[in-house]
Design a protein that fits this description.
It is a single chain. This protein is mainly β. The protein has one domain (2-129). The protein has one helix at residues 24-29, and strands at residues 2-5, 12-18, 34-38, 48-54, 57-62, 72-79, 82-83, 87-88, 99-105, 109-114, 124-129. Strand 4 (48-54) and strand 5 (57-62) form a beta hairpin. It is globular, with a radius of gyration of 16 Å.
Length: 136
Amino acid sequence: MYFCSNKDGDFDIYQLIGTPGSNIYNILYNDSAFKINALDALNSNYDDKCPYIDHNLIVFTSDREGGFGGYDLYYSNLIDENWSTPVNFGNIINTEFDEFRPVTYKNEIIIFSSNRPGGKGGFDLYIVRIRELINY
């Protein structure tokens, strides 16, 4: 299971790994049935949050340096059991505003929310084909 937490200050992405033979009941009620690892390959000194995994692809939002402003969407590929260096989706998706809560479908499309101008107000949903944007 992957999740984000600000337990150490900034939001970071973590992985919960169950011990062999553990089930969801053991994980919920027995802290020796799992271990939690920070995903250093994905995390920065800024907020990294909203992870979503689809096969060997993880997408998430971050306000790290080098973005377009606000929170941007990034992706990473799982290669030989290691996450690759995160890549910004670029200005086809990201704006100077906030892009949040990405969800992908079959590594083909991404649905996300953004508070960019031109929507109905607040955080609106957007959908973009990403197959051509992802480097495998």
